[in-house]
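Section 5: illustrative case.
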């Protein structure tokens, strides 16, 4: 690992040069290579800056911090430093998208990869994150022990991969890039808001304004993660119960409906596609978390799982394809995420792992993050975040706080103390109705509030557009429904009798027909034919028929497996589904016909 890191640093020196942070020379910027900005139509500059591994100590250890900027398209008037979330996400990977969302021609955007992430001394476990490992780049529960052993043995810089040292990097980078006459803002998203609070603890007088979006308060813990997510999920179901169309599908008590579905799953319901209660909670929790699945599609998913007819199975398997296609970028570090979370965002009085595991059974939606983190809490090589741990910054400068009312990570009521602490006249808290986690890209209204704050941070921004933000409606649109479920019918109510008959004919009726035909033809037809050809001999072909029935049952199992696998590989829609099942049915019929002929041929050969 050391050799790899050394060679990477050497390559970086040759590509862009390294500027020492205590140098009076300006940062050497060059056009980014391989940063993906062409996809969003932006030109970006990159640099690598050498920082002390531990600021304020002269032990000779250093770290190379990867920095990126996208300059204003017009006369530059302000700078904004973006802090990405996770922890574990790389700001450089997200900056291009932010530039397209915040269409301010006078704004310079800057970011630096958090220590241990992306291009800043990426913290990883290569064997456990290898594509050919059990779960690919995702580290499984059984792999974490080996991963911890690996980072203990190969990463002597763990004490420098901290939120505090990353915040000190930010303060130094702002010193190096600040230009006369330009305001400097710091924006944090998700965990980036936690990091922004740490930065303000260290540099309260440096920025001209701060934006917090999708807020994580400093006294929060990942122990709370799953309970908070389930609380938001139940809030969503309560909204469903007040919507006439949604209530018509999930009854007037959708929470009870969802709990009953989970109970039935525990009894084997919908097991033909591999669903269990714990897996369903996880699917619902992930669906609540990610932007790709609008909130309005979670109740239809619950109804489809509860009904589990053939069209629902196809739609659920189609959604599996969507979820399986989602992955974190290579710049993301799940190892750094756990390193920071278990050092700074994990309470000392956290319940034991067994208690968090048991709590999952009471949730409707979960990502199992709390329980997963607890399994490695005792063995992780944590660092001491004191004296800043759990404390709010003493900052009374301009601040804009944005939070979605349906944020699954942080229920808005959890921010009561933060709202009390940051309540100065030029500090504004805005709740965006029905928005999820991080709202900047949700609506033009949110973006206009951002831009108003950047233009005049000392003034309270106009937030009246919040009244016109579209509210949550449990109605989909055709394109989204097709993308998620493979059909424009999000609830699965419009499946015709003919298509249902064809599906069952292909997968069930013909299997039953041939399951009966094989022994009947074998026992009666073959026996009669052979008896005539042998002058009345009445030999019994039961052994051969038994073997053929065994082959038939194995073929049935194979085609049942195909019924599960093919929808994961092929898109689900009316035409392709019927074509797929009819094709499989024809193959199945061919196997049945071959078996009947084989019985006769085999029996005749031994007479």
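Designed sequence:
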């Amino acid at each position: 690992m050391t050799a790899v890191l050394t060679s990477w640093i050497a390559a970086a020196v040759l590509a862009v040069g390294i500027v020492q942070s205590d140098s009076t020379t300006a940062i050497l910027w060059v056009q980014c290579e391989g940063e993906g900005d062409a996809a969003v139509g932006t030109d970006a500059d990159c640099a690598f800056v050498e920082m002390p591994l531990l600021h304020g100590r002269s032990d000779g250890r250093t770290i190379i911090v990867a920095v990126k900027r996208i300059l204003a398209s017009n006369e530059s008037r302000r700078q904004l430093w973006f802090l990405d979330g996770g922890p574990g996400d790389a700001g450089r990977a997200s900056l291009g998208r932010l530039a397209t969302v915040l269409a301010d021609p006078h704004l310079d955007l800057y970011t630096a990869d958090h220590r241990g992430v992306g291009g800043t001394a990426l913290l990883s476990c290569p064997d456990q994150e290898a594509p050919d490992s059990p779960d690919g780049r995702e580290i499984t529960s059984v792999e974490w022990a080996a991963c911890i052993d690996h980072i203990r043995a190969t990463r002597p810089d763990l004490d420098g991969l901290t939120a505090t040292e990353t915040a000190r990097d930010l303060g130094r980078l702002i010193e190096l890039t600040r230009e006369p006459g330009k305001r400097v803002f710091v924006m944090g998203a998700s965990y980036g808001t936690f990091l922004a609070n740490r930065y303000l603890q260290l540099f309260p007088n440096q920025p001209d304004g701060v934006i917090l979006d999708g807020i994580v308060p400093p006294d929060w813990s990942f122990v709370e993660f799953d309970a908070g997510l389930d609380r938001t999920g139940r809030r969503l179901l309560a909204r469903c119960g007040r919507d006439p169309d949604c209530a018509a599908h999930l009854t007037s008590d959708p929470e009870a409906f969802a709990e009953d579905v989970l109970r039935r799953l525990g009894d084997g319901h919908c097991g033909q596609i591999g669903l269990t209660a714990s897996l369903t909670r996880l699917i619902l929790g992930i669906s609540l978390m990610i932007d790709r699945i609008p909130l309005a599609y979670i109740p239809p998913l619950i109804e489809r799982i509860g009904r589990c007819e053939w069209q629902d199975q196809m739609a659920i398997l189609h959604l599996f394809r969507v979820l399986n296609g989602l992955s974190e970028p290579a710049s993301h570090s799940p190892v750094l995420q756990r390193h920071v979370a278990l050092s700074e965002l994990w309470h000392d009085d956290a319940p034991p792992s067994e208690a968090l595991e048991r709590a999952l059974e009471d949730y409707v939606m979960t990502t199992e993050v709390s329980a997963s983190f607890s399994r490695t809490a005792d063995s992780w090589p944590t660092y001491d975040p004191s004296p800043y741990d759990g404390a709010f910054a003493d900052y009374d400068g301009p601040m804009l706080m944005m939070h979605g009312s349906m944020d699954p990570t942080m229920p808005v009521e959890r921010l009561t103390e933060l709202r009390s602490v940051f309540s100065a006249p030029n500090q504004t808290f805005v709740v965006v109705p029905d928005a999820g986690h991080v709202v900047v890209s949700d609506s033009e209204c949110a973006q206009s509030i951002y831009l108003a704050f950047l233009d005049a941070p000392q003034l309270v921004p106009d937030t009246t557009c919040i009244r016109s933000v579209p509210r949550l409606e449990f109605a989909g649109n055709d394109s989204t429904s097709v993308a998620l479920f493979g059909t424009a019918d999000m609830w699965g109510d419009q499946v015709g009798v003919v298509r249902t008959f064809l599906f069952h004919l292909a997968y069930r009726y013909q299997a039953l027909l041939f399951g009966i035909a094989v022994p009947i033809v074998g026992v009666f037809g073959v026996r009669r034919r052979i008896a005539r050809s042998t002058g009345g001999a009445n030999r019994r072909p039961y052994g051969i028929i038994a073997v053929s029935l065994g082959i038939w049952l194995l073929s049935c199992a194979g085609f049942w497996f195909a019924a599960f696998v093919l929808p994961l590989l092929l898109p689900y829609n009316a035409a392709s589904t019927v074509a797929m099942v009819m094709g499989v049915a024809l193959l199945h019929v061919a196997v049945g016909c071959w078996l009947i002929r084989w019985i006769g041929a085999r029996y005749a050969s031994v007479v």
